[in-house]
From TrEMBL, chains A, B:
Residue ranges annotated for the FAD-binding PCMH-type domain, each copy included: 37-216
EC primary class: oxidoreductase
Protein name: D-lactate dehydrogenase (Cytochrome)
Enzyme Commission no: 1.1.2.4
Presence of the UniProt keyword Cell cycle in the record: no
Record field: transmembrane: none
Sample GO molecular function, one term: D-lactate dehydrogenase (cytochrome) activity
Source organism (scientific name): Inquilinus ginsengisoli
Family: Belongs to the FAD-binding oxidoreductase/transferase type 4 family.
Cited InterPro entries: FAD-bd_oxidored_4_C, FAD-bd_PCMH, FAD-bd_PCMH-like_sf, FAD-bd_PCMH_sub1, FAD-bd_PCMH_sub2, FAD-linked_Oxase-like_C, FAD-oxidored/transferase_4, Oxid_FAD_bind_N
Keyword set, alphabetical order: FAD, Flavoprotein, Oxidoreductase
Amino acid sequence: MNDAALIDQLIALIGPQAVLRDAADLEPYLQEWRGNYRGTAGVVVRPGSTAEVAAVVKLCAGRGIGIVPQGGNTGMVGGAVAEAGQIILATDRLTAIRELDAEGDHITVEAGVVLAQVQAAAEAADRLFPLSLGAEGSCRIGGNLSTNAGGTAVLRYGSMRNLVLGLEVVLPDGRVWDGLRALRKDNTGYDLKQIFIGAEGTLGVITAAVLKLFPRPRSVAAALVAVPDPAAAVALFGRARAEAGGAVTGVELMPRLAIDFALRHVPGVIDPLAEPHPWYVLLELSSTAADAPLAQQLESILAHALEAGLVDDAVIAASEAQRRTFWHLREAIVEGQRHEGGSIKHDIAVPVARVPAFLERATAAVEAAIPGARVVPFGHLGDGNIHFNLNQPEGADRAAFMGRGAEINHRVHDIVAAMGGSISAEHGVGLLKRDEVAERKPAIEIELMRRIKQAIDPAGIMNPGKVVRA
Amino acid sequence: MNDAALIDQLIALIGPQAVLRDAADLEPYLQEWRGNYRGTAGVVVRPGSTAEVAAVVKLCAGRGIGIVPQGGNTGMVGGAVAEAGQIILATDRLTAIRELDAEGDHITVEAGVVLAQVQAAAEAADRLFPLSLGAEGSCRIGGNLSTNAGGTAVLRYGSMRNLVLGLEVVLPDGRVWDGLRALRKDNTGYDLKQIFIGAEGTLGVITAAVLKLFPRPRSVAAALVAVPDPAAAVALFGRARAEAGGAVTGVELMPRLAIDFALRHVPGVIDPLAEPHPWYVLLELSSTAADAPLAQQLESILAHALEAGLVDDAVIAASEAQRRTFWHLREAIVEGQRHEGGSIKHDIAVPVARVPAFLERATAAVEAAIPGARVVPFGHLGDGNIHFNLNQPEGADRAAFMGRGAEINHRVHDIVAAMGGSISAEHGVGLLKRDEVAERKPAIEIELMRRIKQAIDPAGIMNPGKVVRA
């Protein structure tokens, strides 16, 4: 960015401290944490209010300068990467919790509030904000909204989209749409907030939101269950739903190899079962009732599943501390994988009943393509959402393995498509999947997306090139 | 419709039986059930498949003929009224349940399936489809989707929008968008289905949907609670949530006058309490656990509320039959009102905590405007959604009273607006509220709605004139 006049104007609008240009200052905004992308933008602006966001957007709109909104920069698909000539609009100074209404069960937060802070504020008011995911300590609400974030509580509470009552958005021409309503029902026209949620910043900058709060679970019980195969895991899930209904709030699938990686590389990880088993399910029940007999229910579910041959072994958490170790094990998988060389990843969803068939076909396909590849598929079985990752064969050349990523992605995604699935269940499109999404979706859908982009951002300045080509 | 060539073409596309032109055949499609609107269209088409819908829309698009989609014709806002020169596209032959996947907890239905049939199909598979509202015996799923229907289960399950996994839509040019996905997570671009849900047929014709199913509640307990005033009702709701959390699934508010109207005019209505009281709450707990101790929980909630002076009297349903009589009482209010002369109605929502203040101000305003008007505000307290209706003073002239409807609406809606509320919580916009919505919403929001309408239906043939002026 060599446009000195623009810089002067930005400084005039939001102050010199809020306009970053030094390489060291820019660094954390340019580097994508997985290492797949590196931005080349020369300026980061950090507006401190909605009015400042609006002023910056208006200035850029007048000059046709592309704006890349950025939250915690924890995305997986290059959605927050900015090219030279574009500016990064960081939300990290929009950190006010504007209101918490415990009686009304809602909280109004600015886009830059870190997810864990929203969770903590809710808990302090004896409420639950249910969105929960690995990056919760650093991802920001604006990013969660813009990517329609998922995570481990979707089975019961839905994705981020389902947790929103109202939005405040700076539109691509710099005007502010104040849609910060705290209403449970409102049918006064098109539900505009839905357009901005999940749009990855391509239609405007979300600056604040009214989010739903929920009664806090007062009872919880979890089991780590060894199962012979994914089909047994799906059947176990079905039995749990039949016996415990809506109390089934967590169903995570893990293969043995994922456990091995976590045990090998991540401190504090414990395998609570005596023998190794091919597959595991972390099954959790919860209830807002204080004295719900969930542990007994879990025992009953597991006893019936054992009789039916669906379960090899299981342990029910005897304490809150032990329950946390189960989740630590689950959450350590990503870190464990990172120490086992290159990893080719997929974030797919299929209807839950098709997960076993998907795993069988996809595993066979990638093992045929790369003999010795170590397949480590894990994730949110209850949503049909599997992170189908494969690590390089032991001792293989990392670069050569990673060089086959696109080919492997294609093979796996062909199987997903044939099963009516999604090639981006929770991580979004960004740059990484834009062209593949365009190839795989019906042309009519891409056309509708383009028409919406054109209708809301006719000048194409909002997060240019992301999600859908202009 | 005197265009004989068009009629011939329609008949060629979908058969003579499916193109209605006789006055007697047209009648049920032209008359709005509340008597506020009467259509003047000369033709109703009843396509029997998505392909036939597409063929009809394509034909009309080519000739610039307006299409008014119509489901059960149970709407409240004139959204399905068609003028001369337009055609009504009735969904009442699109009645297939295409698939029910109990394991995957979803059902695929065509737009013309009656809501009660979806509920029954779910129940037969030991599942719940939670949408529940007065017209459920005759309203159709396409209408529920197009109006984002609400009702009595929103507190726990959300509005119709929250119950949808996928849609099939015939676009305004006659092409079919097949978005019938059965995925719990899918972030591969803008979530197009959100645009069509709640659009009241102005952006395309929804022909089928994949809907979520849920575990069926196995325990339920309900109480009819007499409370001194709406503030006590809100406080009781708060206490119930504090004690029973997510088990609180129904919270309906009723004034004594509503009970009197129901008792006077509707067979089978019983007042289970010995004395009359100023206000009532129908409070229901439910759980998917088979043996949840909900009646005890309800007793405990009521005992604490009694101590706190929030409750005057209460009765807990001793049987399923008695529980049904509580709901019969609640549902009889609308019918009861109809026998008490003219009724000026409002379908408003405010944040839950503001319901008492709203009721106080709005009641004072309308009683000052029309002395003797009988205010009967009832509805979904848990959602902040009140049907603020007033009946004419006893013995007053009906026409004179109804003639003041617009003025009264304006007074009440001014109070709603001042409280950050919605002037159409669950019934939608249609013709009835289009111009008032345009006046009251921020101009930027109406502009965004127009841009979306223009982007998806540039020729303006889909349900012309509804929701937002072109």
